[in-house]
Amino acid sequence: MIRLSQLTKTYGSGSLAVPVLRGIDLEIGDGEFVAIMGPSGSGKSTLMNIIGFLDKQTGGTYSLNGEDVKQANEKQLAGLRNKHIGFVFQQFFLLPRLNAQKNVETPLLYAGISKKERTARALGLLNKVGLKDRTGHLPSELSGGQKQRVAIARALVNQPTVILADEPTGALDSKTGAQIMDLLTELNREGKTVIIVTHEEEIAAYTDRIIVLRDGLIVEDRKVTS
Amino acid sequence: MNLWESFTLALSSIWNHKIRSILTMLGIIIGVSAVIIVVAIGDGARQQMADDLFSTDENAIPLYFEQTTYEENGEMMWVEPPAVTGEQLDAVKEVAGVKYVLGTNSGWGTMNHNEHTADMEIIGVDNQYFIAKDLTLLEGRRLNTRDNDSYSRVAMIDSLTRENMFAPDEEAVGAIIDINDNPYKVVGVYESTLPPEFRHMEEFSNGQMLMPRTLISMMFGSPEIDTINVIAEQPDNLTETGFAAAEKLTELTGSEEGMYVAEDMSAYVEEFDSFYMTITLFISSIAGISLLVGGIGVMNIMLVSVTERTREIGLRKALGATRGQILRQFLIESVTLTSLGGLIGIGFAALVTAVLALVLPFSPIINPVVVIIGILFSSMIGIVFGILPANKASKLSPIDALRYE
């Protein structure tokens, strides 16, 4: 359960202060499938960074599963990212010299999981995303869609609370993009909370709830009726 | 992520940039190998020198007469060493720690035999000499007390003389040889103890000869004993034993114008050591500069690596890597790089010393302490010069790092 109240984020200070988020009140329950939309400069990326513990808010509160995370220091933020957040990026961000399996294992390395269990979990998830035969391939030997599947497997490997996907189909053709969205939808059906940041209506349409940001404020929060 | 995983990650990163890594390590390789090679050469030379000084008799020390008065009535004075007798030497033998006291004299004679002619050193000895020097008798008999007492015109030849001056099937024992145109009888043949480097010299190429020292004294008009060597029971106490024996001999001879002293061989070694220490320090400081420059090179390349891998660092942070974990990863990478350089340097040094052993007249000896210091030092360089880049990497903000193009 994610709860944001009167969350603000300001870059710089004094006369140079640029407010990016100006008081966000938002609740995302477990198992929701949410799209955050908005034009560039609306603050949606900043919001995602704060939800993903990559950045800290200037004001207001952020609680995850009832716990206020305002006091967390940098090390604790790293731990929260590792434990609760599974990132999926537009540019995949796979480590180029590690094969698919090793890429998926990376978050487990930082969680201090034993090698045996790392291997088992990584192989299991690669199987789940349909890359059973590609576990030993380097990212350069995979197609865009396959790379994003590896990234999704990596996002899932630490059994996070939330999957945060930033324009997950932005670098893919529409057919492959649709397959990735199907995969994310399936994960949501299995109970995962999935938050997607996108500016494409078509992508947002896969989700159950659309939140629209403009100038640092939520201007729309609606259920998607299919 | 445990240490071993960080280490394998570091190795794969180094392996992926082979040429760059080798070039970066070069300063470390040169520095470490230079120190090891120089110290190995020095230790080898020192060992060789010690062997040369002590080789003939590891536990023998010569006594010589040193005059204490140089002037008489304003004029320079030369003090003759007192005549030393066999009885006096027997008394010196009683000094604690002394095993044997060898009184010898020597002369050079021209030997003629079978139409061979050779100039040869003849050592005048007593009956103890053979046992004290641990010589090996090959044919015939040793010289005995009677030979000395009766001025017997007998000689023992060594294996080199036997080989060069006698036919292989010729009976050497009992043969009459000519020395300075006088006949002497060969009574025994012993294994030559001349060091190999002496055998190449013309004057020693035909070996040496042993005769009763009384006979030598008569032949050459020299004192019966002009060279005194003390053999100690314990080689470790050689110098002390030598000085004690010298003191006793001075007392026995009762000379007022001079005294016997022991020649302190270790002084030569010490002198060499201090000379060699200077060279070692000099080379080590040059090697130190090489290591310093190497370290700066490592720092430079690590900074480049951090910049190149900004996105990787950002991603790793997003996946949950803490600042400490990133710091450790880069630090281990730089330590691995420099330690590897140190190891290659050691390997290179081993190779060079092996080649030098073939070329030099002595074998360089690799000092394990220097090798260990080399490894520790190169690892330390990795830490010192890796801190800055590793710290820079750990401080990158994940958002900025992920956005980095």
What are the defining features of this structure?
heterodimer, A: 226 residues, alpha/beta, Rossmann fold, six-stranded mixed β-sheet, four-stranded antiparallel β-sheet, 7 helices, 10 strands, 35% helix, globular, B: 405 residues, alpha+beta, 2 domains, six-stranded mixed barrel, two-stranded antiparallel ribbon, 56% helix, 19% strand, elongated
How would you describe this structure to a colleague?
Chain A has 226 residues and is an alpha/beta fold. Chain A has one domain (30-58, 74-223): Rossmann fold, CATH 3.40.50. Helix content of chain A is 35%, strand content 27%. In chain A, the strands form two sheets. A six-stranded mixed beta sheet of chain A has the order 6-7-8-3-9-10, with helices on both faces. In chain A, strands 2-1-4-5 form a four-stranded antiparallel beta sheet, with helices on one face. In chain A, helix 3 packs parallel to helix 5. Chain B is an alpha+beta fold. Chain B folds into two domains: 3-52 and 269-403, no CATH class; 83-254, no CATH class. In chain B, 56% of the residues lie in helices and 19% in strands. Chain B is built from 14 helices and twelve strands. In chain B, the strands form two sheets. Chain B has a six-stranded mixed β-barrel, surrounded by four helices. In chain B, a hairpin with a 2-residue loop joins strand 2 and strand 3. The radius of gyration of chain B is 34 Å and the shape is elongated. The two termini of chain B are 27 Å apart. The interface between A and B is medium-sized, with 24 and 22 residues. Chain B: InterPro entries: ABC3_permease_C, MacB_PCD, Macrolide_Exporter_MacB. Chain B: It is found in: Cell membrane. Chain B: The chain crosses the membrane at residues 21-42, 275-306, 335-359, 365-388. Chain B: Belongs to the ABC-4 integral membrane protein family. Chain B: It comes from Bhargavaea changchunensis. Chain A: This is ABC transporter ATP-binding protein.
